[in-house]
Design goal:
The complex is a heterodimer of chains A (108) and B (119). By secondary structure, chain A is mainly beta. Helix content of chain A is 0%, strand content 59%. Chain A is globular, with a radius of gyration of 13 Å. The interface between A and B is medium-sized, with 23 and 22 residues.
Chain lengths: 108, 119
Amino acid sequence: EIVLTQSPGTLSLSPGERATLSCRASETVYSRNLAWYQQKPGQAPRILIYGASSRATGLPDRFSGSGSGTDFTLTISRVEPEDFAVYYCQQYGNSLLTFGGGTKVEIK
Amino acid sequence: QVQLQESGPGLVKPSDTLSLTCAVSGHSISSTNWWGWIRQPPGKGPEWIGYIYYSGSAYYNPSLKSRVSMSLDTSKNQFSLKLNSVTAVDTAVYYCARTSSNWYFFDSWGQGTLVTVSS
């Protein structure tokens, strides 16, 4: 089973700042099989990025995904007030899925 | 637009079986998507439970595999989860979700239902 480790656990930022979130896998993950979600309190996760770098329909271009192999990154170029939330990465491999532990982006 | 809605008991006794159903509207479950269950204990991250294809093929989280089963009811366009021998650690919000066609990420989710395991 592939384990995903996200860092940092919490990111404290002011609106307009850049957010860089990391997701590290215990084994190689094909880029096609890496996704990022956003979750706000009381809501289900929402897909942001799939295939490591493809934006979901309607997602603002301030969100971008990158990486390959075991290291993947979600970047928010300028954090907006609505972006304060928890972010999870998720991978698929050998018919199994796993989620990372999450990074909380909070208002500084 | 696809919609998913979980239903089932909100309280289950220890050692009993947790049973949930996900009703799907706006999309046939007999399509090239996997239909999955994910749970999230209070204050923790999501945990994939498993998913099932319209053919009946299913894959489960190895940590839960011995206690989990999933099934489809194409006549009602819904799918179900059973988790047996539950304990307090199974207390969580349970979500049903759909994978995007030919991909392995979840593009549509139900609102989630809280299931508490307690006597």
